[in-house]
Amino acid sequence: LTYGILRFANLSHGDLVTIFAYIGLWCHRLFHNIFLAGVAAIISGSLVGLGLEKVIWRPMRERGGSLVAMVIVSVGLAIAVRHVLIAIAGPRLHFYKISPRIFQFGDVRISSVQILVVAAAVVAMLFVYYILQRTKLGKAMRATSDEPALAKVSGIDVNRVINWMWVMGMGLAGLAGFLYGLYTSLRPDMGFYLLLPMFAAAIVGGIGNPYGAMLGGLLIGIVQDMSLIFLPSQYKIAVGFVAMIIVLVFRPRGIMGRTI
What we know:
Elements: H1 2-6, H2 13-31, H3 34-62, H4 67-89, E1 102-105, E2 108-111, H5 112-134, H6 136-146, H7 148-153, H8 158-183, H9 191-205, H10 210-227, H11 236-250
Antiparallel strand pairs: 1-2
């Protein structure tokens, strides 16, 4: 969403997902309620996204800041967020203290957490599709993505669209952080390792296309997990990038996107 509308690669995304994951974890420790933890992560994501737009990104755009300058600022933001989180949470691993139910289907074992993660991801994808295709806001987002100047002349409040883009996009980032924390362990410096497969997924699917990012994320995830059958886990990220290179050789625009 961010790249599709602003043509801006936000390199702080991974570290922001990390801090939203921790907010969900802390909320769960405080209230012992998974639902409240997820809501807290989503709301914090939306509020932080809107706040950063108001305080950093919009002032930079209005003052003629280049996209390169915005990318550099996002790197600085990522480093700042990472070290603040390390100072607060410490460098050790953190886990949700829950005991998920295990369901046995023949030789396949599936936990209640895995079912929750898949169900939430499907609901999130349907939500994005509905917003973009069935609402006035979604149509305004698509018009702004195609041609911001023409959208503004046509009467679309571009700043309002961008505000909602950040609310929606970073809310989804909050959900992603929460689900990631449920599924595995958390550590304050994991943002960089989250960022790499995120960008690989966006590029494979078609950079700037939200549906392509969903498809790319699914493909990268399947390829990485299948690689564990043959390779040690430390090669998992590399396998995702090899898959990205193979796709781009045959589809330079990505599966559903424009030329990179």
